[in-house]
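Justification of computing resources. Each target in the renewal requires a structure prediction run like the one illustrated here; the chain below, 121 residues long, is used simply to show the kind of job we budget for.
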Amino acid sequence: MNWIAIAAVNLALAVALGAFGAHGIKSIASPEQMAWWLTGTQYFFYHALGLLLVGILIKMGYTTSTTAWLLQIGLIIFSGSLFAMTLGAPRWLGAITPIGGTLMIIGWVWLAVTAFRYSAS
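Resulting structure tokens:
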């Protein structure tokens, strides 16, 4: 899997989603929905940048693709659920948002574990 390329696509999407939030839905979304969109966009952007770094670290042998998968799936679930609710999906969908956040946390912890293993060898 080319995680650097996936990160680049994610970064392009983050910019597009931010612009869509600022210009496409601002006039029809409530302040609460705009806050969801902003949070989703911020986490999408931060974790896309993180995934870019992870892709480089995978190529260097400092971590495994497990880190990247956890971040990518977490990012999709976390931000995706916030975007969906902003666009009118039922609010109960927000119940899965923390699952995405948990996967992202586990991804960062997995990076720490693998980095510690690398430095010990």
